[in-house]
């Protein structure tokens, strides 16, 4: 249907998957057949994904997941969009559904107490509460909760080491939060393992908080892992906390450096964007591979020759012909 809207789905589910590779193939095929695009991780500990598609296709996809008893309680964060938020479909089997190095922790057995958005909002300003952002630094620099404790980590796998610096907070109520809730499952479980006794997590993360609590006191924008890059969360008392990478003025306009070798993703104001031709520095302006700047700072990956079936077949099975498997992207 011409007027049918697109949806973006964010979800995860910790569950026992005996044969992740077999389920990956099944899942991949379903996505192909229903024009679902995005990034999905399958592991023996569960599944984690962000996908997009037409509304009817996305509803079919949600039914497909929830019809499997292993994933029946999966909760989807649903957002509207005017087009696909991804160019391709990637379904990968990995050791963890979010890389933490904490494979021994099972959130289904022990994790922090889940707080619904309105409960989180009611607790977050209490004197004995510490709001802990468990995301990476490039995420919380763009946006974070007011008064949140933000860790200087490049990746979530650095979180366990940073917890050593939080020993003095063991007598506090720790309220963890992340984008969609998945990192908090392991983060809060690890805090409990390390002797923190009163640990909570924002159920559904920042995205659900924006939908159900108006995003109150979330400052800046929320970094997301699809083509939107950054989304508004706060409709009650919004503000901008990030600054232009070049001139330092307040700015939440995210840009990929036009130099593909650099390609860092940072806030760059419109004025600096044009002055530096989409590059993040003087050095990158002069790089011989610098991409043409169109004012957006977003560069769609080349999908020429994209074949969604690439990587679908098991090694033991007959491979598609070279022309079927060609992928020049």
From TrEMBL:
EC supergroup of this enzyme: oxidoreductase
EC number: 1.14.-.-
Stored Pfam families: Rhodanese, Rhodanese_C, UPF0176_N
Top-level taxon of the source organism: Bacteria
UniProt keyword terms in alphabetical order: Oxidoreductase, tRNA processing
CDD domains the record matches: RHOD_YceA (cd01518)
Sequence ranges assigned to domain Rhodanese in this UniProt record: 125-218
Classification via InterPro entries: Rhodanese-like_dom, Rhodanese-like_dom_sf, Rhodanese_C, TrhO, TRHO_N
UniProt family annotation: Belongs to the TrhO family.
PANTHER family: RHODANESE-LIKE DOMAIN-CONTAINING PROTEIN 7-RELATED, THIOSULFATE SULFURTRANSFERASE/RHODANESE-LIKE DOMAIN-CONTAINING PROTEIN 2
Function field: Catalyzes oxygen-dependent 5-hydroxyuridine (ho5U) modification at position 34 in tRNAs.
Identification of the protein by name: tRNA uridine(34) hydroxylase
Source organism of this protein record: Lunatimonas lonarensis
Gene: trhO
